[in-house]
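Subject: Sanity check before I submit

Could someone independently write out the structure tokens for this chain? I want to compare against mine line by line before I put it in a report. The sequence has 547 residues.
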Amino acid sequence: MRPPRPAEDDRPVLVLGPNPTPNGGMHLGHIAGPYLAGDVYARYQRARGRGVIFTTGTDDSQTFVVASARRLGVEPAELCRTSTELIREALSAIGISVDGFGPFDQTYQATVEDYFRALHAAGKFRLKTVQMPYLERTGEFLVEGLIEGECPVCLATCRGGLCETCCHPNNFDQLLNPRSTIDPQDVPTLRETTILVLPMEEYREQLTAYHEQWSSYWRPHLVQMVRDVLSRPLQDLPITYPLSWGMPAPFPETPGQVLNAWLELIPAGMYTSSYAAAQLGRDTTPGQLWLPEENTRIVHFLGFDNAYFFALTHMALLMAHGDTYIRPEWVLTNEFYELESEKFSTSKRHVLSVQELLAEVARDPVRLYLALTAPEYQRTTFSRAGLDKVARERLVEPWNRLAEALAKAAANAAGSVVLPVSDAGRAMAATMLARFDFHYEMPNYSLNRCADTILSQIARLSRLATGLDGRGFDEEPAGWGDLILQVRALIALSAPILIDLAAAARAAGGFDGVLAPGAFEVSEVTPFVPPLLSLTAADEAISPASR
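---
Independent answer below. Compare away.
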């Protein structure tokens, strides 16, 4: 089955962002990948008049919370609380338009438990005795964020369970040279324990068919990883772990164990999507929006380092539920985003938070630069000098020249004016819409190309305005009419990224927020004075008329 063409696909869309681990705040490396990509996509779908639910929520059960809390000398629950506040603050500050940020509450936990109870009752899990790293000094098993070593597939340093470099799993005793992440001097032994697993090999045929159906529409690194993993025997997936932190596993065979935190994320998405729907005025039960009869399409944005879980293990778990739930149609991954060509590192103080940057730079230039440099296909880097240069020379200065030329012409006009739009002007606006639509929609969705198209159109329209400058509306009515129509089109089409410019334009009556078919097929326009853009946080987009 081929996916519907985007122009013909008006099904409601469920946009999922990854669930951030509440073991600290958010830096630009987090935002520049799945959160900004999901936000821009959701905003564009809303502008096209489609039903959208964009949601996420924290992943409190992760062992990374425990490891970070111990290094900081605080309780894990307290770290979750303070980090969740920082995460929500960062998402709001940069303008990530989630419809609902699902809390980690009793309904969340009940949704996760019900999801796994159904699979347990259907006999999908198997008991398995395995050897797992064990720390004699503390009497605890080490998994996931509590242990690191060398990946048995690519030899890169990685944490337990999954390698962020090659995205292959390393379950149980497979990690090479294992050591504690809290104290690397603590070298674990191996101890036998019995857990529940999902036999992934039983889903090989379904997984292969699913990926053959969709892989031609996904980014190549994800496709390569899936093919590589499927070329080997599929490892049994741990469902439970003998840990003290996490959601208690509701199974009689594994008393005292917890659920594998990584596996909460699909039922978590079912819960947060229902929570978000309620914020929009529609009450649903958790999981209802994932039923086939809802006719919803799911678009999932995530970092490549998590792709194994979402592309393979979560798909296998959904398949284990039979035809109960739909599956994501689009899975868009991103690579790592670096800071000045070096990986973000909180421990080395090589980090820049969203809040720190927005205290100095206006939000729209930050969003534009992050979109332009987002790590879609390979690692990219944030450069403060690069941000300043791009924002000043390619965004703010040419846009403001354009806006000021229109303001000057409007100020010199006598009385109310209506300007004609030529066939060529309408054709230009239609071409802009088609080009932006190509980059905003699947399967070609690209933050990089959307941002670059915004900058190229600003440069083009600024040149047109310069050519008209000094001539009034009465001298070049069609020229000004065509320019104003295209400026309105550009504001509308850049609105998913330049959110503050769009808000100021709406307030000034220059943009209604909707990109309906035929939006720019008009024969005349009234003059419009666009807002100015600023580089600094102290002076956000304002109208030239109010300066």
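---
OP: Matches mine. For the report I'm noting this point. The two ends are 56 Å apart (CA to CA).
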